[in-house]
Amino acid sequence: MKTTILTAYAVCASIFAAAAQQTYQITGLLKNQGNEKIILTYFDGTKNVSNAVEAVNGSFTLSGPSPAQPVVARLNTGVDRNIYLGEQKNSMFIPSMPLNVVLSPNCKLNISGTAEDINIAKVEGDAYNESFNALRQAEGNTEAQMTQLQKDMIQLRTMGVKDGLGDVGKKMLDNRNASIAIHKKFIKEHPAALSSVWLLATSAREYSTAELQEAYNSLDASLKSSYLGMDVASRIKIMSAAATGGLAPDFTKPTPDDKMITLSQLKGKYVLIDFWGSWCAPCRASNPHLKELYARYKDKGLEILGVASEKAPELETAKILWKKAIEKDEMTWPQVINNEAGMKVDVVKLYGIDAFPTKILLDKSGNIIARWIGAESKELDEKLNTIFIK
């Protein structure tokens, strides 16, 4: 009996040891990487995980404990790839995009490409990552084109040049529509690919609630039970609650002078909720136009409520950056910050915001009547003109 128990214990210990020894390994060679760091970050379903290593002449090896289920990680380089919009590196910038890499138990991956374009590097090793290679191939150069168009738009605005804004704005809209079409087609053609559920989770904003539900229903059952699938299901619930035509979820947040504003207190006016951040170059570039709209329609019954989401890890730093941006951009309409000590309500999650800037228009009764994403919105101008110019 004792021998049997000891044998069973040994078998169990062996099984647990084998599970504990499951690791991932990523090797790679990136041109122009030099000896800069390679940084890997991911969410394992319960917490954020990070790992980093210094490359040697562009060559690197990253390894660590495997996540319990396949996850989409972000691999980035310490080489500064941000596009800065001022002479100093603390100015506004368009953040560089990372490379999406799937980590699975005991995976062994190899990455090749350049540090400057790490986001489109090739990942070899398993079917999960092959599906992301296929997605990157389907996207072509739409992402690079959008980055350049954003840079062109913001530079024109910061220089005060109005000629050409309409042309660049149209190109941005065309690019965005082309990208959306590519993504929707990819998801439809690859319902069992992890890249599809990831794409659905990260581009939910491109879908109406009904479209998102339909796309989610088409996914393989195994994907629905993944943490990404559960995230999509959660987003559908949020979007249903904050859908156009419904009553806007109420919230209370602090102002720059530490007073509190409750959204429902603004009923009786049309309210444009502007989700932005001091770090967000497209958000800041849209502020001059918001100033024009506020001056034009404030006395006619429009109120704008800025809701800032800051990226600084420390609250006090976030508040300083927020207040400086308000002052510099001369934003005279009410402002609140989503970041706050002991935050009870995350307004960004409450409204299903996953792109900045996003603007949501409420009628006098507090119902959501329209929603726009991005710095340029001809539809916003037309909507306000229809409401106030009679």
Would you spell out the secondary-structure blueprint of this structure?
Layout: H1 2-20, E1 23-31, E2 37-43, E3 48-54, E4 59-65, E5 71-77, E6 83-84, E7 93-94, E8 99-103, E9 108-114, E10 122-124, H2 127-139, H3 142-158, H4 165-189, H5 194-202, H6 209-217, H7 221-224, H8 227-241, E11 252-254, E12 260-262, E13 270-276, H9 281-297, E14 302-308, H10 315-328, E15 335-337, H11 347-350, E16 358-362, E17 368-373, H12 378-388
Parallel strand pairs: 1-9, 13-14, 14-15
Antiparallel strand pairs: 1-4, 2-3, 2-5, 5-8, 6-7, 9-10, 11-12, 13-16, 16-17
Description:
It is found in: Cell envelope. It comes from Mucilaginibacter paludis DSM 18603. InterPro entries: AhpC/TSA, DUF4369, Thioredoxin-like_sf, Thioredoxin_CS, Thioredoxin_domain, Thioredoxin_ResA/DsbE_sf. Its main location: other. One of its GO terms (cellular component) is cell envelope. The structure is a single chain. The chain has 390 residues and is α+β, with helices and mostly antiparallel strands. It has three domains: 23-154, Immunoglobulin-like (Sandwich); 165-242; 248-389, 3-Layer(aba) Sandwich (Glutaredoxin), CATH 3.40.30. The chain contains twelve helices and 17 strands. It has helices at 2-20, 127-139, 142-158, 165-189, 194-202, 209-217, 221-224, 227-241, 281-297, 315-328, 347-350, 378-388; strands spanning 23-31, 37-43, 48-54, 59-65, 71-77, 83-84, 93-94, 99-103, 108-114, 122-124, 252-254, 260-262, 270-276, 302-308, 335-337, 358-362, 368-373. The strands form five sheets. Strands 15-14-13-16-17 form a five-stranded mixed sheet, with helices on one face. A four-stranded mixed sheet has the order 4-1-9-10. A hairpin with an 8-residue loop joins strand 6 and strand 7 (93-94). It starts with a helix and ends with a helix. 31% of the residues are buried.
